[in-house]
User: Fold these one by one.
Assistant:
Number 1:
Amino acid sequence: MNLKQPLLLLFILLSTLGFTQTSKRDQVMSKLITDNYTLAKNQYLYMMKQVPKDSLPQSYDKATNKLILNHITWWCTGFYPGSLLYIFEQTHDETIKAEALRALKVIESNQTFTENHDLGFMMYCSYGNAYRLFKDEKYKQIIFRSAESLATRYKPKMKSIQSWNKNQYFNCPVIVDNMMNLEMLNWVSQHGGDPKYQAISETHTNTTIQNHYRSDFSSYHVVDYDLETGKVLKKATHQGAANTSAWSRGQAWGLYGFIVMYRDTKNIKYLNFAKNIAKFILHHPNMPEDKVPYWDFDAGLQPLAKRDASAAAITASALMELGQFTTGKEKNEFINAGVKMMESLSSDTYLAKVGENGGFLIKHCVGALPLNSEIDVPLVYADYYLLEALKRYKDWYLNK
Ligand code: GLY
């Protein structure tokens, strides 16, 4: 018998199986994207009626049935306008758009704020999306000014951007979350701004590899530096279970940040690093079957430990982008894991019904458990990253 024939048949069978799996995944995702964006529109139309003029929503207190609001310089204030812009993009609802534009105005003055490192979160998730959609030159200038403010926190001796100011716990802390603020710096350098911003972001990333990460590709939450000498004073946590533990949202921030750094620099070192972080997260023995992590991978008391749905949303969005830069089995593993996270977050366990949950989409997030803050609540950034993950699947994989 001709040997080529069975091999050809096998090839056709395997390709058909792969194709069937992908189209089944597309069917699931197509429904999730439509349903979640319809829900998001209705939820945010409901929520916006409770949002006051001068502050933006962060969470919701079920006991009092009231939104929890924050001052405009709190790190989360870019997510409400950012989510509204994602919803507008998919639904073209003009009331949603008007509220997004109003919310952008509320945080506009943050562009000159220099008291923490969160400028990227606040000003790029918001104004970055606004510029992407509307190409208004004014938004671009606000992003440029925000990058200038963030760059004031770069400390050459430490080769890092300082996250928080000196406080009772830390001298000059840098947190792994800071990887999320680099996208805005890269963007400004790549859109006619000073190349120094991307240089800062690359140096910061290299220092993060050196000082934040352990040999298993898990990350410390905080590295505290001596501002004068740049020496590492200690490696610790602020929001995790222990100094040596893997705080779940921190792992998600790191993963997302390294993927952005690869996208913006094409430095293969960052891609390999991101893949290793993804494997640490996805292969962790304490990762639950539904792929919504406990608030810390080393939380203890599993399976009773609280989940952090925000970590799943951020990871899902990051994995969608990692799928863009990988091939074959690896690509499938990353996309399928992200899809599983989106499916879980869209189940009755995690997803609110219209009018519930203060208008937020996702339930069961944890902000800072050791500080007894925001435990098992909705958090504005969980919604933002779920919406982003759904959009990414639609743009990059659906029917492709
Ligand atoms: N600092 C961001 C966070 O709490 O995840």
Number 2:
Amino acid sequence: MKLETDVLIIGSGIAGLYAALKVADNLKVIIVTKKDKAESNTNLAQGGIASVLGQNDSFDKHISDTLIAGAGLCKREPVEILVKEGPERIHDLINLGTRFTLKNGQLDLAREGGHSVHRIVHAADLTGHEVERALLESVNSKENITILEDHCAIDLITEHNVYQLKEAVINNRHCWGAYVLDVRDNTVQTVTAKATILATGGLGQVYLNTTNPLIATGDGFAMAYRAGAKLGNMEFIQFHPTAFYSGSINSGASHPSFLISEAVRGFGGILRTKDHNEFMSKYDSRKELAPRDIVARAIDNELKKRGDDYVYLDVTHKPAQEIKEHFPHIYERCLESGIDITKEFIPVVPAAHYACGGVVVDTVGHSSLEGLYACGEVSMTGIHGANRLASNSLLEALVFAYRAALEINRKVTTSKFDIPQIPTWDESGTLSADEKVMISHSFREVKQVMWDYVGIVRSNLRLERAFNRIHNLYLEIEDMYKKTKVFEEILELRNLITCSHAIIKSAMMRKESRGLHYTLDYLKTDESQEPHDTIIQNRIP
Ligand code: FAD
Ligand code: SIN
């Protein structure tokens, strides 16, 4: 089947939905989304959205906190845009029906690691769920927007599939839409568009332990890479310091680890070793409120040194009523696991949480391919540098989805588009049951390799091992892919492998420790040269 639209948006989290709302007044939009439309990282976000809204806050303070967390790699221009345009986007969310928590009639502002003041707008501890609800309601009321659930984008359409290019022609390549798998009947649709927005979120599922939901298999990074777009700073994977330890975090299951929000530390939570001793003061003067890379590494170090499986997060010194008021969801979820957080310590471990790098875009979300935009977690705007400041991610998605939408409006309404004849998907291939077993096995293998060798602490040897293992898996999956009629799991595995390759390759290129990339072979940040991004680009179409 062939579908035509002005704008194709891949993903229905905060970035995709917000962009859709901002182009739909003038243009026809199709949103394709892999599963149920609410299933996204956005829907799980807890702490909130950082923005300058408090009396004792200022743009300079938010800019400075963001730059400090980013360990010298943030780009000043997009950071200034993010911070200065943030408050307007928050008010727009409120106008769209988002109900944030209020205190004495004003927005209640929380605090998280790396922030010098209280500036996190939130809806109790279920901020993402509330934002997703409000955006979906608005999107549902727009006639110009069609949402296709259970539709998984396979690959972007560019010159390489239209003209069957054998040689790489990277410069001036165009994106004309995507091939999309209708998961319900396994048919492939060709969706052509004047502009395509990747809003596919993160890649936490690359790792064995992650806070990310099952959809986060890095499809957008992988599709963009295969199509020849530039990816940047893929080595900077943020591990959230405090995911709930359920007794078997290394069980191999892909299901997300439950997050204990950073706001719990902002509220006064204290990290303790298993013998109840506080330890963060040994690592950083900001203690529990140091940026995430520092806290996650400190926990990792304590666990390795002591041979423990988890550390504790303690809020028992805070009034029980306040705990329940601020963190009703966390309180309930922990209680279901047998822990009353008003009286008992919470067992926690770090888990893969956020990709700071991604598809390289400019300040209007445009990638290095003509017609391809990216926003939200899949993009690299230059804001996060080597380590994202807590709660800057939802804000980035809003600010840059809005900017991309304005740019697309301008371009689509003022330019002439000549989309060539796009071939339909070649469906040849067969699959035997044996191969399906190989898929689930390879899934586990990728996640284990990445967790063991490309995690919080890296080394040249570990990266080399990971590279070789992932390369073998890459050869196997490519061979299988050529012989197979596509289905969702094979697409996701292929994407996980491509993302792993991109992360390892970028980590190998960075010969220093900086922010989230910490390696035993180069313990220090290289001060002898200007901070630089690691850019990778697929040269083979
Ligand atoms: P997502 O919200 O992940 O949406 C991605 C969409 O793309 C989904 O609809 C998915 O189904 C779809 N998709 C993916 N691949 C395909 C494909 N091949 N075809 C079709 N559709 C596809 N950030 C903050 O700023 N504050 C917080 O408090 C916060 N808390 C968090 C808590 C948790 C547990 C997690 C996991 C993350 C948190 N983050 C937080 C990070 C933040 O939630 C995400 O970075 C952000 O929501 C990403 O939004 P997005 O729109 O880019 O992607
Ligand atoms: C959290 O609530 O700790 C998550 C915040 C974030 O990822 O920015």
